[in-house]
Every structure is written in structure tokens, then in C-alpha cells.
Amino acid sequence: MIERLIGWIDRLSNLFAYLSAFFLIVIIVLIVSNIVLMSLFNKSIMITDEYSAYMFAAFVMFSVSYTLKEGGHIKITVLTSRLPDGVERIAKFLTTTIAFALSIYMFYFSCVMVYQAYVYQMRADTVAQTLLWIPQLCMPIGFFILSLQLISEILKVFK
Questions:
Q1: Maximum Cα–Cα distance across the chain
Q2: DSSP letter at 82?
Q3: Domain range holding 70?
Q4: Interval 51-110: pLDDT, tens
Q5: For the chain, how many structural domains are there in total?
Q6: H or E element: which one contains 150?
Q7: Counting CB atoms within 10 angstroms of each CB, which of 73, 135, 142, 155 has the fewest?
Q8: Model pTM greater than 0.70?
Q9: CA–CA separation, 111 vs 140, rounded Å?
């Protein structure tokens, strides 16, 4: 049962990593297209900066859980590498639980931010006047997936 849950969460993190890679590709295509249009026709895609920033936020938020799953986050192991195995597992459990609590905290407040942007129909102060709740959605989604991955990491400590 726990193995299936861990596997499901890991696959979800993989899915969001692919989605993250898609956003990075779109950013590259958008910027290169803008450069080509500026060079050849002296025209610009007016939304390049704005939408590249939105997609970069999605790129980061959607890749955080995968990075955690793959052990890609920076870890300072000066202390924990010298601890006995049992104590090291307890330390990993405690730090991962704290990270989980922080992730849930960020999830909640990012949901509040998106909700307020939706209710007040807040728009970007740019040419496109994008409804801000749409690009802001990547934050609660990213924190939710990160929270699930942290649960998976906590379960792996006891495996």
C-alpha cells in the first residue's frame, strides 16, 4: 500500500517535470521568435517578457518536487553524515516534516493570493492585461505537488 502511494506520488512528480520542461521549451521558442521578428521585420511580440516570466514561474514551481525526488536540492551533510544510522533517519524525518509544514503553509497562502486575484479580477499592468490568477495558479499547484513529494520522502524514511 505504502509502496503504491510512493510510486504514484513519484509518477506525479515526473509528470510535472515534463510539464516544466514544456514551459522551458515554450520560453525558448517565444524568445527566439521575438529575436527573429525584431531582426528581420523590426516587429516585436509584445507579450514576450510578460509571458516568459509567467512560464518561468511555472517552470520552477512544477520542477521543485521532481528535484526533491531525484535528490537534486542542496543538502548540507556535514553533521548528518557523522550521525549513527538511526539518529540520521530521525534527523531526516524531522527536517522533512518541517519542510512539509512550510510547504503546506506556502500552499495555503498561495491559494489565498490566487483567490484574491480571482475575486478582484486583478490584471497585469501590461499590454496584455492578463488576469493574474491564471499564471499565479502555478504556485499552489507546485506547492501541493511538493507537499505530496515530501509525504513520499517521509514515508521512504520508514521504509
A1: 66
A2: G
A3: 2-158
A4: 999 999 999 999 999 999 999 988 877 777 788 989 989 999 999 999 999 999 999 999
A5: 1
A6: helix 138-158
A7: 73
A8: yes
A9: 6
